[in-house]
Give the backbone structure.
Amino acid sequence: MNITIIGQGKLGSSISALLQMSKTPHQLLGRQEQYHCSGLVYICVPESQIKVVSNKIQGAEIVLHSAGSLDAEILAP
């Protein structure tokens, strides 16, 4: 399964580093107009940007976010 992490801050970079250490293929992306992804996408951006980023994702099978105070409904189109 393809793994994409969106957000190059502390959390996204830390997860990417852990995946690199375990030799797990993935991609770490910053700000883009659109995200064409497949597989799993983990959104690691500030809470105020989760909805904005999730609306830019196309093709992903699973989308997760890292905000503990928001539920999964924020990812709905």
Observations:
- Helices lie at 10-21, 47-54.
